[in-house]
Inverse folding.
């Protein structure tokens, strides 16, 4: 197993709804190594955004409750930090975010330059550099002129790096004056500017045309590699995962089911749900083979493995408690009592 630099353990998150308490994350485990690109994959409603928002510390305060778990990030439990500390020192600095919809991410009334420089004012890597800070400036909350100049140069370089031509002209524009693809390039630039260790990209290309999607994903992967930045990438698309991720974690109805390196995942899927998911991809011979049955409601969700009502391999214990996470190959974890392609035991091999 690679060093875990983000390590989520036994995370439980629920939401109060009019229909009752929805247990949206049920003792979820998830990890990322430094510089690794990990795909968090699952059908709509399985809890991808909730996990991303819990790590970022932006769950809705009035309805969400974290009842268990730890989120170790670079040696510290983020769940023990105050919201002020998360906002000042973690979110937008060491962990940044690329949203799904580049159309609603900018404020329409300010130029792009104004909005990016406001980000740099608070989140620039030079913010605490003694070269640019003096006590009077701190008291008056001034954006020091020398730092502004250095930050501005960094912004121009970053825009060139995300392949936006004529960066000065882009900065002078209003958000509606650039295309969706350009806005998402701007979002990638803004996510990289604070020099983060982890970027959380929540379905960053689903709002874009297919041809633009591929370009943006390639760019994101290349930049993350160059900078050694880790990415948590949520998606419901296994094809995209295969193309850009190093590792995959599959979720179903608020539970993580299988986590593996991309190669092991696609060649030796071992969780019954994962296998069905891969079989359900359209192929030339069979077309799409759906999984019979429905995803269970998260309000009064069934105990045990939430896939048990649809699983061909289910036995009594599956509907009582969740299986422990078991390593069945190098960096390949499965939470199942009966993984499908586990190595044979000696008794099975002899029979
Ligand atoms: N603020 C909220 N209040 C109540 N329920 C919520 C809230 N946010 C999310 N949920 C519920 O939590 C579950 C998981 O939602 P989430 O958005 O995390 O799923 P997702 O995997 O990101 O789905 P998608 O692929 O559609 O983005 C869903 O059942 C959703 O209805
Ligand atoms: S065998 Fe049991 S634990 Fe494994 S996927 Fe099926 S129901 Fe879940
Ligand atoms: Mg989502």
């Amino acid at each position: 197993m690679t060093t875990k630099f983000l390590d989520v353990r036994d995370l439980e998150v629920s939401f109060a709804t009019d229909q009752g308490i929805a247990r949206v994350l049920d003792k979820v485990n998830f990890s990322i190594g430094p510089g690794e690109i990990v795909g968090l994959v699952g059908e709509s409603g399985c809890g991808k955004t909730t996990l991303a928002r819990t790590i970022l510390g932006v769950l809705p305060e009035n309805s969400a409750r974290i009842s268990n778990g730890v989120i170790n990030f670079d040696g510290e439990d983020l769940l023990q930090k105050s919201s002020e500390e998360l906002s000042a020192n973690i979110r937008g600095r060491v962990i940044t975010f690329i949203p799904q919809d580049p159309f609603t991410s900018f404020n329409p009334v300010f130029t792009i330059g104004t909005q990016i420089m406001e980000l740099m004012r608070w989140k620039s890597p030079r913010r605490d550099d003694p070269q640019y800070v003096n006590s009077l400036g701190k008291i008056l909350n001034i954006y020091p002129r020398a730092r502004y100049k250095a930050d501005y140069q960094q912004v121009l370089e970053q825009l060139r790096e995300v392949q936006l031509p004529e960066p000065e002209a882009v900065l002078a524009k209003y958000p509606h004056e650039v295309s969706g693809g350009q806005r998402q390039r701007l979002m990638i630039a803004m996510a990289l500017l604070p020099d983060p260790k982890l970027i959380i990209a929540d379905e960053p290309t689903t709002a874009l045309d297919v041809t633009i999607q591929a370009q943006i994903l390639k760019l994101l992967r290349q930049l993350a590699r160059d900078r050694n930045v880790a990415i948590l990438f949520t998606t419901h698309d296994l094809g995209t995962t295969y193309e850009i991720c190093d590792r995959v974690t599959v979720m179903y109805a608020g539970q993580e089911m299988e986590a593996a390196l991309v190669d092991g995942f696609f060649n030796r899927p071992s969780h019954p749900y994962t296998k069905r998911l891969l079989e359900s991809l359209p192929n030339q011979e069979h077309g799409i083979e759906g999984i019979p049955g429905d995803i269970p409601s998260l309000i009064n969700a069934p105990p045990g493995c939430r896939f048990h009502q649809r699983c061909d391999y289910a036995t009594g214990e599956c509907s009582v408690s969740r299986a422990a996470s078991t390593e069945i190959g190098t960096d390949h974890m499965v939470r199942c009592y009966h993984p499908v392609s586990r190595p044979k035991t000696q008794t099975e091999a002899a029979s």
Q: What stands out?
A: The mean pLDDT is 90.
